[in-house]
């Protein structure tokens, strides 16, 4: 069976199909990213008969059209949005949505004498030789009347040449555009593969893209759900865009969907800024117990998982589940309480979270556990924190994470979250993990390592102070401007047998400290600068930091997982120091995890 068919269609037929909703372009509600020069070039290519690439559509069953009608099928445009939007703007004269969500016009001018296209400017508008907006020509009552008026304004123009030129311009209506229509019975993975192979740019199309397109085909409700997702993600990053959305998307502004996300206009936390793919996946876990975005497309298409056939009667219930899940996801109370839960585990800065998928699953888990009336809030938060940290340490949500997600959700449902979590902990967080696997994983120069970031989270959670700091905490430095300091200074190591970056830039040689302390230590070896601290404790006269008590110094070294005898470390004993500190850091992470 053919997986797709290739056909040609006239520009005017394409625009008519879009207008009648036979071809859905859900992305039209998102900002138009082409500039007017690209629109001009598209018109010029069509005029000259140059190829403009294929549009790619995918058939959708049970789509709702404007006016409440239900289509037997509808083609979803999955590639070519910008080209179709450009055609609608230039030829039909329809506005586009700019980055401020305002409707603006892109006007393309044409000079019948020179046969040039250009973006309309004030100079062109005043020049009678130019047709300053070709949409006025295409939307005029008749070519004859339009031509007559033009020649009256330009008596020097050769009528015969003008007639030939204007005829070629009019032929843009019937210019052929290629459309590749993918079969309706293809699964999302197959559609994705075909898309990549026939798309000249080779840009992959994700399952989340299909899901977003599919959501928008369900009439006004689907379009509003699609916008709710889009706008939530946009406002999470740019709260100031709220006024633009409210002012310029009046239809959406009149719905409860905007009200549900309006709180984001005052939200500035950057710890978790989900993209639409993240929202789709969380919704899949919460609403459908599914980890794959493609599974949501199947659900919204009415695919019966047992018969593997389309059952349109299943579609309304699927949209009910999606909307209910999104309502939970965008809730201010849920979102903020989840963020507080993650922060209470010590992950207080965006760059500490190395796996967005771990955060996505943790949020879905949090929302699902909220559906359990018998679970108290403290237990819910304990499970979510442990699951997030476990996922971060083990890379549980990397690789083929979607299959893992579905397995985890299924077993959480069957066994209960607490029991299943304990089972995973017993299998993965063994004594060997804490004593061997984790110390070995900390043998890295990457401060972005999830293991090092979890160590910092452990310090935050315990209220640890910076290295040799009396009162400034690691949390305060992560939120402001603390330095990552080489405990055994880089310059000292470079001059004493460790010239390679991978040697001195080991995370086991790093500690957060105040800038002033870092400057005071400079390139002094541990014996020298710790001698200064010892003299400071003896005299009470500050010279390096503010610690003046021996017990407080010992406590500070423990807080920073630094061996008590590290003042004796030299270049010769540096490798042994790294081994000892990695073990201490791993032990600190273990104790932190068990205390969550």
Offer a concise description of the structure.
The protein is built from 30 helices and eleven strands.
Number of helices: 30
The mean pLDDT is 89
Shape by Cα distribution: elongated
Gyration radius over CA: 31 Å
Sheet-strand content, in percent, reads 5-15%
Structural class: alpha+beta
- Poorly predicted regions are none
Domains, number: 3
InterPro entries: GmrSD_N
Pfam family, one: GmrSD_N
Protein name: GmrSD restriction endonucleases N-terminal domain-containing protein
Domain GmrSD restriction endonucleases N-terminal: 12-214
What does this structure look like?
The structure is a single chain. This protein has 596 residues and is an alpha+beta fold. The protein has three domains: 4-198, no CATH class; 220-295 and 322-430, no CATH class; 438-595, no CATH class. It contains 30 helices and eleven strands. The chain has a five-stranded mixed sheet, with helices on both faces. Strands 5-6 form a two-stranded antiparallel ribbon. A hairpin with a 5-residue loop joins strand 5 (96-97) and strand 6 (103-104). The longest helix is centred in the C-terminal third of the chain and has 22 residues, at 574-595. It is elongated.
List its salient traits.
596 residues; 3 domains; alpha+beta; two-stranded antiparallel sheet; five-stranded mixed β-sheet
Question: In terms of topology, how is this protein built?
Answer:
Layout: E1 4-10, H1 11-19, E2 23-24, H2 36-48, E3 55-61, E4 73-79, H3 81-90, E5 96-97, E6 103-104, E7 108-111, E8 116-119, H4 122-126, H5 134-138, H6 143-153, H7 159-170, E9 176-182, H8 188-198, H9 207-215, H10 219-237, H11 242-248, H12 250-253, H13 256-261, H14 276-288, H15 293-300, H16 315-329, H17 332-344, H18 356-369, H19 377-394, H20 401-415, H21 417-428, H22 431-441, H23 450-462, H24 474-479, E10 483-486, H25 490-494, H26 501-504, E11 510-513, H27 515-521, H28 526-539, H29 550-559, H30 574-595
Parallel strand pairs: 2-4, 3-9
Antiparallel strand pairs: 1-9, 3-4, 5-6, 7-8, 10-11
Helix pairs in contact: 2-3, 9-10, 9-14, 9-15, 14-15, 14-16, 14-18, 17-19, 18-19, 19-21, 20-21, 22-30, 23-30
């Amino acid at each position: 069976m053919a997986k797709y068919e290739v056909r040609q269609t006239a520009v005017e037929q394409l625009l008519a199909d879009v207008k009648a909703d036979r071809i859905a372009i859900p992305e039209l509600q998102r900002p138009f990213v082409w500039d007017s020069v690209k629109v001009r070039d598209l018109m010029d290519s069509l005029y000259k008969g140059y190829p403009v690439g294929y549009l790619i559509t995918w058939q959708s069953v049970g789509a709702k059209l404007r006016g409440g009608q239900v289509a037997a099928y509808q083609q979803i445009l999955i590639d070519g949005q910008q080209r179709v939007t450009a055609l609608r703007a230039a030829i039909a004269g329809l506005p586009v949505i700019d980055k401020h969500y305002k409707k603006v016009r892109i006007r393309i001018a044409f000079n019948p004498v020179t046969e040039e296209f250009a973006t309309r400017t004030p100079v062109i508008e005043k020049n009678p030789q130019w047709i300053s907006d070709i949409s006025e020509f295409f939307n005029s009552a008749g070519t004859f009347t339009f031509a007559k008026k033009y020649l009256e304004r330009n008596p020097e123009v050769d009528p015969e040449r003008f007639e030939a030129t204007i005829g070629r311009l009019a032929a843009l209506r019937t210019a052929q555009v290629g459309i590749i229509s993918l079969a309706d019975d293809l699964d999302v993975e197959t559609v994705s593969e075909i898309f990549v192979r026939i798309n000249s740019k080779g840009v992959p199309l994700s399952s989340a893209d299909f899901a977003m397109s599919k959501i928008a085909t369900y009439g006004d409700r689907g379009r509003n759900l699609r916008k709710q997702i889009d706008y939530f993600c946009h406002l999470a990053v740019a709260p100031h865009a709220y006024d633009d959305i409210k002012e310029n998307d009046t239809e959406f502004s009149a719905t409860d969907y905007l009200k549900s996300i309006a709180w984001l206009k005052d939200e500035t936390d950057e710890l978790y800024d989900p993209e639409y793919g993240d929202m789709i996946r969380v919704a899949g876990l919460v609403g459908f117990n599914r980890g794959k975005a493609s599974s949501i497309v199947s659900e919204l298409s009415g695919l019966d998982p047992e018969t593997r056939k389309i059952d349109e009667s299943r579609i309304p219930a699927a949209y009910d589940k999606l909307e209910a899940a999104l309502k939970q996801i965008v809730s201010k109370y849920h979102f903020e309480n989840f963020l507080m839960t993650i922060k209470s585990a010590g992950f207080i800065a965006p760059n500490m979270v190395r796996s967005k998928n771990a955060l996505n699953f943790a949020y879905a888990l949090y929302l699902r556990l909220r559906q359990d009336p018998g679970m108290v809030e403290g237990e819910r938060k304990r499970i979510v924190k442990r699951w997030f940290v476990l996922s971060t340490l083990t890379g549980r949500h990397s690789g083929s994470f979607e299959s893992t997600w579905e397995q985890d959700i299924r077993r959480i449902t069957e066994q209960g979250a607490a029991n299943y979590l304990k089972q995973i902990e017993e299998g993965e967080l063994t004594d060997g993990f804490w004593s061997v696997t984790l110390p070995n994983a900390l043998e890295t120069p990457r401060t972005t390592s999830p293991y090092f970031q979890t160590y910092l989270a452990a310090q935050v959670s315990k209220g640890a102070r910076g290295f040799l700091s009396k009162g400034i905490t690691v949390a305060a430095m992560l939120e402001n401007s603390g330095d990552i300091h080489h405990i055994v200074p880089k310059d000292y190591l470079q001059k004493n047998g460790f010239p390679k970056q991978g040697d001195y830039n080991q995370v086991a040689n790093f500690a957060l400290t105040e800038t002033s302390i870092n400057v005071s230590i400079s390139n002094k070896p541990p014996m020298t600068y710790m001698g200064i601290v010892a003299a400071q404790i003896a005299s009470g006269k500050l010279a390096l930091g503010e610690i003046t008590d021996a017990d407080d110094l010992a406590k500070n070294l423990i807080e920073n997982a630094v061996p008590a005898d590290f003042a004796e470390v030299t270049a010769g004993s540096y490798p042994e120091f790294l081994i000892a500190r990695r073990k201490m850091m791993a032990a600190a992470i273990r104790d932190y995890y068990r205390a969550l």
